[in-house]
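Repro:
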Amino acid sequence: MSDETTPAEGGVEATVEAVVFDVGEVLVDETRVWHTWADLLGVTRLTFAAALGATIVAGEPHTAVFARVASGTDWRALEPLHEQRYGGFGEADLYPDVRPTLAALRDVGTTIVIAGNQPARRRAQLERLALPADVIATSADLGVEKPDPAFFDRVCALTGVSVRSRVLYVGDRIDNDVMPAARAGLRTAWLRRGPWGHLQNPGRPPPDVALTTLSDLPGVLRTGQARPGRRSSR
């Protein structure tokens, strides 16, 4: 892949046959997740957000945030109570650009797969939202989590596309999504929203395209800006 942005050469409808979407901060706004944790642990939401930001900048796993805000607390023992209060994914948690974007891609025959690092219970919650997707799977379903290369192997199998450069993975994280997907041979779109999207910087290899909204994705594919070897930023 290249850092250079060059003029597109025709459309890529026939080149990108499948788009795989991560879940958190790509489709689902996770603000309620973090607010529920802050309330449960007895810290202000602003304090929790600051600790999460520090965790991201330090390159630590997201679970390290709990040591920053509630050292000595067995946060895993609180997960059932957190889930009870949170209540799972709902329609209000979807970003407004999700349904129109998925529908636009489906209208031109693109295979849509939703797959991210999520517990098994999230799949049923996503299915209840009746998103226009061909396949929905979680890391729990696949038996492996990003950034493990096996995750992307199994995701590619779900798409039914034999040529990996014809699969585009859309994620908000450079470390978990963009770089490992690119190393696995997929094309990548970096969605710059949510905590990781705003605090991380492009790595190597860089994303094929950087987005601030999913709404731009159908147009990017039509104009060829996500062709292999090109990097475009919107």
